[in-house]
Design goal:
By secondary structure, the protein is α/β, with parallel strands linked by helices. The protein folds into 2 domains: about 10-20 and about 70-195, HAD superfamily/HAD-like (Rossmann fold, 3-Layer(aba) Sandwich); about 20-65, no CATH class. Helices cover about 40% and strands about 15% of the residues. Strand 2, helix 5 and strand 3 (about 115-120) form a beta-alpha-beta unit. Helix 4 runs parallel beside helix 7. It starts with 7 loop residues before the first strand and ends with a helix. Bound molecules: magnesium ion. Magnesium ion (MG) binds near residues 12, 14, 16, 141 and 142.
């Protein structure tokens, strides 16, 4: 019998399995003494008018002090299903600094206990896409990354957020923006991608 070749899925971490944004916004509010609205783009520093190194420092602090509350249900169901079906290791790809590797591994081990995974740390400013040669699907919350994936023929799944709206979703047939509906995504992947 012919073995089904399941397409490989790569997972981003922040905004996909780790919901670090609310706590980072609260921390930035505390640092600046301002009430901050949820950003509408990924360029938090420009939009919130806060120095980039302060924004980055706040994100890194939140990643370092990870908590169990930051696990996002969106990815958990999908990862369990994908691993159960394919028996593959879960491949995470992230722009987190490598200096936070220990905390990142601790968080992931807590979030998906018993499921083997590997993490690739892409240097800040580098594109994830060039690393994803054999991957057919990328789950990532950043719009620019989804657009780059689409251009490279990779299907992009974006958990819906305030900062990743597509100007014309109908122009992007390979990008799926999904809000808290992993069951719909799983249905889609089973149907279209045979996971
Ligand atoms: Mg992300």
């Amino acid at each position: 019998m012919e073995k089904t070749e399941y397409p490989k899925i790569a997972f981003d971490i922040d905004g996909v399995i780790a919901n670090i944004f609310p706590r980072t916004m609260r921390l930035l509010g505390k640092i600046t003494g301002r009430k901050l609205n949820p950003p509408t783009t990924y360029y938090f520093d420009a939009e919130l008018d806060i120095e980039r190194k302060i924004v980055r420092g706040a994100f890194n602090q939140v990643i370092f002090d990870w908590t169990t509350e930051e696990v996002m249900e969106f990815a958990i169901d999908l990862i369990h299903h994908y691993h159960w079906k394919t028996k593959r290791k879960i491949f995470f790809i992230t722009n987190r600094p490598r200096s936070l590797e220990t905390e990142t591994r601790q968080f992931l081990t807590m979030a998906i206990p018993g499921i083997p995974f590997e993490v690739t740390f892409v240097p800040h400013g580098d594109s994830k896409i060039s690393i994803l040669n054999s991957y057919k699907i990328l789950v990532d919350d950043r719009r620019q990354t989804a657009l780059e994936a689409e251009a490279a023929g990779i299907i992009a799944i974006m958990p819906e957020t305030t900062y990743n709206k597509l100007p014309k979703p109908e122009d992007h047939p390979r990008i799926f923006r999904i809000k808290n509906r992993p069951e719909k995504l799983i249905e889609y992947l089973i149907d279209k991608c045979q996971i």
